[in-house]
């Protein structure tokens, strides 16, 4: 069983995953969203420079969310510090404010995220976490998987 905590960061990835991320970001920049893909841009918490990363935007009952399957990575830390950013598909750019979701409120969002994108990000959750995992299991991993509710202007 993979250990999860509030400091979890998965930075290494297979070359195929890194190449896949570049392809997704490139297509999204051109205006082609793959299953909800967006290019997230957030100001760096130290440099103030804009940083971008491809993300999967999940909508639950009309509410958009960002989930960080790799844990507390740089874009998560930057978003916590700034509280806002942009999401882009092609020329369409939406400015948003982010609200971090409490661990107790994550299981339904994580379940839907895994249902939609396990084929892409399931390896980051470990072999024993799936869309049909128990609520208790999803609560166990919640501290290591940041989730943000997105509020657009």
UniProtKB/TrEMBL annotation:
The name this protein goes by in its record: Nitroreductase family deazaflavin-dependent oxidoreductase
Tagged with keyword Transmembrane: yes
TM segment ranges: 20-41
InterPro entries: F420H2_quin_Rdtase, Split_barrel_FMN-bd
Pfam families attached to this UniProt entry: F420H2_quin_red (PF04075)
MF GO annotations: oxidoreductase activity
Domain of life: Bacteria
Signal peptide: none
């Amino acid at each position: 069983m993979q250990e999860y905590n509030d400091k979890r960061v998965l930075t290494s990835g297979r070359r195929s995953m890194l190449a896949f991320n570049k392809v997704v970001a490139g297509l999204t920049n051109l205006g082609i969203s793959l299953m909800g893909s967006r290019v997230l841009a957030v100001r760096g918490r130290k440099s103030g420079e804009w940083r971008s990363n491809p993300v999967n935007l999940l909508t639950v009952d009309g509410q958009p969310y960002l989930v960080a399957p790799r844990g507390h990575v740089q874009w998560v830390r930057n978003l916590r510090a700034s509280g806002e950013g942009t999401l882009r598909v092609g020329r369409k750019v939406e400015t948003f404010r982010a609200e971090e979701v409490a661990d107790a409120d994550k299981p339904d969002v994580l379940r839907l995220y895994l249902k939609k994108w396990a084929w892409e990000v399931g390896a980051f959750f470990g072999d024993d976490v799936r869309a049909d995992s128990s609520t208790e299991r999803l609560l166990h991993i919640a501290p290591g998987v940041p989730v943000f509710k997105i509020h657009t202007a």
